[in-house]
Write a structure and sequence with these properties.
The chain is α+β, with helices and mostly antiparallel strands and 147 residues long. The protein is built from two helices and nine strands; from the N terminus they run ββββββββααβ. Helix 1 packs antiparallel against helix 2. The two termini are 29 Å apart.
Length: 147
């Protein structure tokens, strides 16, 4: 008999970000989104920079993942992230300021030593934080909650 729910645990080096009983999980894989439902086959995968979302009944919750790994076992999803924030933890004003700084770093200058790969990575992370932080309370076919 297949389990009806999953236990989702997300951990970053400095803290446990969340531990919840969920109906499904969407993970930001390196090559696209991964959908995990109860009964999923065991899996170990690397995660990229992206949005993690999970459903609890009609509510959808979101968080950021800044690279890491996910392991799927019987009835359990464990996410080990380099950094992660639940949507309600994101200060959108600070995230927008970081986005503006990252955009400015990408403007080429003749005497610039900008590391474009690092600047693009900073831009991607800042944009993700703004997007996840701004979705609080928005509807996407279900009630959206963050955390």
């Amino acid at each position: 008999m297949l389990p009806k729910n999953l236990i989702l645990e997300m951990v970053a080096p400095e803290r446990q970000v969340l531990r919840e009983t969920v109906d499904s999980v969407q993970l930001p894989g390196l090559d696209g989104e991964l959908g995990i439902l109860p009964g999923h086959a065991p899996l170990l995968t690397e995660l990229g920079v992206g949005k993690l979302s999970y459903r609890q009944g009609s509510e959808v919750h979101t968080a950021t993942v800044m690279r890491g790994f996910a392991e799927v076992l019987a009835g359990r999803v464990i996410v080990l992230a380099e950094r992660s924030e639940r949507a309600e933890e994101i200060d959108v004003t600070r995230a927008r300021a970081a986005l503006e700084r990252a955009e400015k770093r990408l403007i080429p200058a003749a005497d610039s030593d900008v590391d474009f790969a690092r600047a693009q990575d900073a831009l991607r992370r800042a944009l993700l934080r703004v997007q996840v932080g701004e979705t609080r309370g928005m509807l996407t076919g279900a009630t959206v909650k963050h955390g």
